[in-house]
Amino acid sequence: LGLALYAGSLCAVSGATFLYHDYCVIGAGPAGLQVAYFLQQASRDYIVFERSHAPGSFFALYPRHRKLISINKQYTGKSNSEFNLRHDWNSLLSHDQRLLFRHYSRDFFPNADAMVHYLEDFASLLKLQVQYNTAIIHVTLEKNEQAWNGHYFLLTDQDKKNYKCSSLLVAAGMWVPNVVNFPGSEYVEGYETVSINPEDFAGQTVLILGRGNSAFETAENILGVTNFIHMVSRSRVRLSWATHYVGDLRAINNGLLDTYQLKSLDGLLEGDLEDLAIVKDKKGKLHITLRFYLENRNISAGIDSITLPQDELDNFATRAPYDRVIRCLGWKFDFSIYNRSLRMMPGKGNIKKYPQIKPSYESRGTRGLFILGTASHSVDFRKSAGGFIHGFRYTTRAVHRLLENRHHGVPWPSTVYPITQLTNSITKRVNEASGLYQMFSVLADIILLRENATAFEYLEEYPIGVLAELEMQTGRKAHSGLFVIIMEYGRNFSGADKDVFYYNRAVGEAQHAWQSNFLHPVIYYYKHLPTEREMKLRPPDWPLPRPDAIHHIVEDFLTDWTAPNAHILPLRRFLENCLSTDLRNFFAESCFLFAFTHQKLPPFCQQGYLRMQGLVGSQELRHHAVQAGLLQDYTHTDFSGDRPPDSHDGSQEQLMRDHAIPVRPLQHLVNAKDE
Questions:
Q1: N or C: which end of the chain has fewer CB within 10 A?
Q2: Which domain of life does this protein belong to (predicted)?
């Protein structure tokens, strides 16, 4: 049947005219606009299809009560724009400083109307190629060996216009409401249509199905006018501060928890919604019962003929009738427009609302089809921020870089540094990089070592799920080992049942850095690129396979990993142990001495002093080095001659005396590594 339908669809379009683009993007929400920006910057042939008359149509309706839960921090005390993106959860990535969300709202939790305005400006100011009022209603494949991926994607819109593209980027979001069908579900109002006027609920008793932010947002809106609110869901409440997952319940919406725990009538219940049933009485009140009570019963015969739980258990929790029942169960992906030839399948278990994709965000069923934005969240569901703007703006950039390498031969962007800059490069990135910070345990910086570890190549924000494919996906080589830098929470610190405020919850000493609980940098060292098999067999809850060496930079209360003794010194020692080299910086005097006493100079002397580069001595630097015990104080040495050593007449003899080699014992100099 599937083959027949596929053949029929090909026959239907075989005589049609197609408008061709290399890249087709479905949806002009935040993810669609973000990938359009990157495609436009690379001068690629693309088109974005948007079914509405303006971008970001989802935000024109949702959240219903108009307050976003993505933070908009105006001030951080720093002017570093990359660092500030760590605390700006709404801006998309662009070169235009006008398109920072702080210019559109000063509210910490902005109004959704500001997001609509922002997305409209993002599309118009950057002149993105968006075709509005175009609803794609069918997508299928056309086999062609000349195509990039062995096939073209054929798209049809509501006006029967046809489009063809080599790569399909789906950024349509999640907008189909999750609905649970049970006896009496026709009496349930949906979050997408329920009144947002609190006065419509005055003096009523309300049951809310669901336990996410939309459910608590709805409860918060009517909390002060209802008799009481009950909330039922199959799982216990998950607080975002305990799970460290921004999609769980946020503090801004949790007023119902107060009234529940302080016994002010409202309450939370756990139960499988599919086991419920709702019966309506003659007065219009809604009674909650269980499905099995209705077996072999005629509901239309009236409530008097139906056994209710309180008939057997007189203190049944939901025995009081309700005036209204509201469904707030979130959304799921719309699979209906995709032909079976694309093999777009839903995930399994708790990610069944998402399409199945690889860690590279490419569909498991069809090469060249990528899922972007909220719908790509199955890669890091309940683990990181990939389902939200402040996460998928970075994963979208990663997908674009993968496409640039695959289709246009443009390798993943990288920078080559001398090995002496290794410690500095890592320190800089862990202190300011926003992609690592937001997409913790998902995106990583990769350091590829050059032969003999004299230099390294730095790649930013690569998806670690495809680490084994790094050479193929990036066009870069990893022949001499690599470091992987990611951000992690402590292994046992996050969870719905965790007490994250317990005494001594943080670690402050470098020797206990591996026990850090809060978000902190972790550096993995591999002598060889991990294989696909090693990735699959990695330990449970580990983002990467077991490395040859691992280093945790101790957590910091200020998320400022620049302390010389607690952060930088242990990091440098770790890198030196991995590379069997000395990564310290030296004064010219020390390099001069090493040149006469060692067969191999430290890299800083090789790449600096011997090339007439490096630190030039001065009175202040020399005084500091003497005070630190790094150099011998020779200013009071008894020089022969008529002039004191600090008198300069430009003679060669006096110049040599001023730059005399310190007489500090060699062994003391060599052992100064930890100073």
A1: N
A2: Eukaryota
